[in-house]
Amino acid sequence: MREGAQAEQLQALSDQARVELAQVPARFEDAFIDLLGGGPGGTSTLAERLPPVELGSDIAVSCRNLTKRFGEFTATDNVSFEVQKGEIFGLLGPNGAGKSTTFKMLCGLLKPTAGEAHVVGHDLRRATGAAKSRLGYMAQKFSLYGLLSVQQNLEFSAGVYGLEGNTRRERIAEMIETFDLGDWLSATPDSLPLGHKQRLALACSLMHRPPVLFLDEPTSGVDPITRREFWTHINGLARKGVTIMVTTHFMDEAEYCDRVAMLSRAQLIALDTPDALKRSAVSPERPDPTMEDAFIHLVESADRELEAAT
Length: 310
Description:
About 35% of the residues lie in helices and about 20% in strands. Strands 6-7-8-3-9-10 form a six-stranded mixed beta sheet, with helices on both faces. A four-stranded antiparallel beta sheet has the order 2-1-4-5. A hairpin with a 2-residue loop joins strand 1 and strand 2. The N terminus is likely disordered. GO terms for molecular function: ATP binding; ATP hydrolysis activity. InterPro entries: AAA+_ATPase, ABC_transporter-like_ATP-bd, P-loop_NTPase. Keywords: ATP-binding, Nucleotide-binding.
């Protein structure tokens, strides 16, 4: 925790069972946010409204030997992992490593060439519809309908997930308030500032209160305050038992995850906690590696092993 953090944020963090507080140097981003009046507090109003998630199993998402080929090109190659209920699970990798392809298969948007995947106990090969009803998906692009207004996008999302009557009205009002969309209801998504556009996309993906949430680079291109706001909600949802899978290019965001899977050249090359991944990159020249150091080390090591084997 950086110096000067507000007391209520420290208290909110100290109440989290899995968090240990340690003072760290302030970053340029911290100073930027402070100059703008400070970011969000440590509590998610969205998560506060949610009841705890109940699942029949401790495993929310699993895949085994998941493979996707497009002709001769292999986008995902024999990827296997399990994600625990309430876990924030990150997927990292270079561009073209297979992150989004893996996401789309786990969301039922792409049919695997081989392997199997389960979401909340539903086999995506046989019960795609049942699985989709239990998950939320925020795509990196094209997750909103540009010809519809903000209000209509919210109404459409509520209808797709079968919300009706008072429940429908209450959920839409809840999302408008939580994500500060009230002044933009008649606007189209394309006219929104990027931060509000991403807020709308997240609101639509959470409308039906899914126990599993897939976020494909949710903070790409947004300002630091909005990015911090998103992670406040993500952490709050996880504490209520929502399982969250997220892809990101921001190495500091990867450190917010409970575990991180790294993909390179369509294959899973590492899976562990952020601290363990950083320890794997320790060397005499690099005694205290960052997450970025670990990422580069693991990708380059995997590339060398692949080249040596061919």
